[in-house]
């Protein structure tokens, strides 16, 4: 479980621009809270303020602590896990745009350089607190948000350093590698595990056994996690209906989607969507109260 304060930005005047901030906020994780496996549809930067946790891709994982950061790029399966003792607290901001990948690559953060260290994380904390004051009141606010995403990237360029900590490399069976690649590419299509096995050329029982050995999940459960975690973004950040989202992420039957979602999050997609809608109106007072409540005070 985690506590989170987030503001989601729907910038009607800045569609299809070079850069666009999509959401930003702070998160406090309880011990052993896990997010994922999931795939994002935008770039998302996390910066650890306190505590520790693990960030992992399908083949590597990093133990991270205060002032460390990590990027989750679009269309890459990832997961992260809060430590049992001193679980992490972090800020985050998501963005996309025609030049997002180019700018990140120039900064030195990309799909081949996912983790980094920051010399001055308080710079980002102040900007995210400013993001939470965004009131969705028109063009002036949208110009403010456009300026903030450039300030955030400017800070990354100025203060980031390569992370010295070496990752732990996971050795996967070839069948698991192929299955992960296929599921990551096709999870939004109405595929099933028999189709997966046919596509990569492995017998189902054999694949399932090795896949679970490598990942801790069966291929079916892994596919459901990808779809349901992806649905969280759609429920939070779009006005799509539950039925539209179910079909968007590969479920042929909306009831199967609802059961899968409830099994993981213990509430229905509709209940989650209503809760997110209520929480998206963030005021200045709420922002300050939340910051005090979460005690996001960085000691550097």
UniProtKB/TrEMBL annotation:
Domain of life according to the entry: Bacteria
Coiled-coil region list: none
Residue ranges of domain HTH araC/xylS-type in the record: 177-275
One of the Pfam families matching this protein, by short name: HTH_18
Gene3D superfamilies (alphabetical): Homeodomain-like, Regulatory protein AraC
Matching SMART domains: HTH_ARAC
Keywords (A to Z) from UniProt: DNA-binding, Transcription, Transcription regulation
Protein's UniProt name: AraC family transcriptional regulator
